[in-house]
């Protein structure tokens, strides 16, 4: 059986000390370019993989990142994990995920226990959990590095990746008015979430500027789930006159609206235009395909991972001020001109 190469083998063949090899493996900046390239080549030739436990002990780190979330959209979580893992793989980190229940009274303790139990170096927090000031404060007290992904600017930019949902919904409002629509309704997300408020206000305020007002009875609060999209759509589509457009806070809820329209014999988009938010896989696969807002979730997750790892390693953070991303409108078959 062939012996597994060690860091000593890499050092010997590279003609450098083991400490220098360790610096290259750990991404330290105080190694010359030529030396780094030589060591990288030897590592590649030997197919050397550093022992993670030994690496962690040497650097006084676990090389583990945490991901905390409470989100019913499995496709969104999958996109986030793929984005984070792409960076983790390149930097030699592993990812530990922790679903929590944001509305539970003990969720702060639950997340704190996860951090302690997992011995993570840092954590990425997804909305709506990321909107908790109390959780951020708890992590700071424990000296745990974190990055929050959210729809509003809640923290130092080094700790944030923000999706500009308000601006994206303004674009959707202008698009729908350009199609000649004025009779509109909204299925919002839970109104205690900042993301729901940003989307609703971005949409309605732009409509008001364009001379379109949505009556109070045509704004119904949903739960961001397919089932709540169904129940809210049934309440909206029995109103008289019936809305010409329904914007739903998530694609899951928009799919629920599509189902109810089909059951009631309402043709989409001929009699009813529907728009959602997220552009998950579902949006392009339902019939008709959904007009929606595409959030660059994987890119956001990669940016969050880069920021948290740079903070953990004390590296020069070139992307510290890079924190705001704007989702964009995807026009498909579920909307049409009046």
TrEMBL record:
Residues annotated as domain HTH lacI-type: 5-59
Gene3D superfamilies for this protein: 3.40.50.2300, lambda repressor-like DNA-binding domains
DNA-binding as UniProt keyword: yes
CDD domains per UniProt: HTH_LacI, PBP1_SalR
Protein known as: LacI family transcriptional regulator
PROSITE patterns (UniProt xref): HTH_LACI_1, HTH_LACI_2
One Gene Ontology MF term: transcription cis-regulatory region binding
Repeat is among the record's keywords: no
Superkingdom of origin organism: Bacteria
Keywords on record: DNA-binding, Transcription, Transcription regulation
SMART domains noted in UniProt: HTH_LACI
Organism: Paraglaciecola arctica BSs20135
PANTHER family, alphabetized: LACI-RELATED TRANSCRIPTIONAL REPRESSOR (PTHR30146), LACTOSE OPERON REPRESSOR (PTHR30146:SF153)
